[in-house]
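Worked example 3 (structure in, sequence out).
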């Protein structure tokens, strides 16, 4: 996919104030510092679209971007940041739940996982939650350039095996590096495929 346009639109705490749900939408989420901003910038080819590691855990808004006037990219605040208060965490939880459960045009949530780590409870629990809410998601293993290929594939395999204990079907997964551009085409092809499906459904085909 060629990115002709990528613009920041709006930040909200209330899902009901999000832009009209008339375009397919892709949300990115993961633990703070997982490499979400870097991935968004790598995918869109815009080095400053999402802010990289300014003040982790601070942004507590649903951030909409519009790509090629055709689809929304949403940067969601990360979870698992130690320094946020209980109150902030509750607020985050409520905002994210309402958004994820109600946003009709949400085609896929990309859940980011650090490819250097063994399966983490906090990530598995978040996926269980998505499952309960019936939110479609895919996995993105980030920072693959920081590992040997063998370690990355070991960690991916371990995560999927862990998931299999609970899940009958495994979601699509991607391995990425924001530094090397790894996985960009695979993620973008997947988005394109879902965009086509979204348009067909919208037309009633
Ligand atoms: P966020 O908090 O999830 O948005 O994470 P950031 O995108 O701000 O990245 C956190 C840190 O990891 C920064 O220092 C990035 O430069 C670094 N980082 C992110 N992605 C990659 C990657 O693919 N490879 C490497 N080597 N570093 C990365």
């Amino acid at each position: 996919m060629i990115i002709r346009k990528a613009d920041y639109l709006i930040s909200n705490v209330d899902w009901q104030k999000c832009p009209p749900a008339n375009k397919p939408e892709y949300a990115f989420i993961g633990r703070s510092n997982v490499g979400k901003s870097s991935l968004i910038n790598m995918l869109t080819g815009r080095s400053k679209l999402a802010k990289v590691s300014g003040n982790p855990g601070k942004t507590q808004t649903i951030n909409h971007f519009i790509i090629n006037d055709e689809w929304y990219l949403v940067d969601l605040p990360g979870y698992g940041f130690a320094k946020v208060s209980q109150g902030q965490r509750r607020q985050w939880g409520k905002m994210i739940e309402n958004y994820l459960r109600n946003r009709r045009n949400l085609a896929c949530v990309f859940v980011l996982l650090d490819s250097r780590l063994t399966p983490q409870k906090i990530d598995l629990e978040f996926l269980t939650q998505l499952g309960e809410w019936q939110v479609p998601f895919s996995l993105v293993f980030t920072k693959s350039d920081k590992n040997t290929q063998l370690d990355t594939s070991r960690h991916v395999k371990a995560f999927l095996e862990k998931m299999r204990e609970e899940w009958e079907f495994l979601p699509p997964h991607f391995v990425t590096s924001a530094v090397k551009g790894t996985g960009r085409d695979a993620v973008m092809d997947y988005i394109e495929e879902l965009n086509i499906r979204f348009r067909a459904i919208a037309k009633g085909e």
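Notes: The pocket of guanosine-5'-diphosphate is lined by residues 30, 32-38, 52-53, 56, 78, 142-143, 145-146, 177-179 (CB under 6 Å). The chain is about 35% helix and 20% strand.
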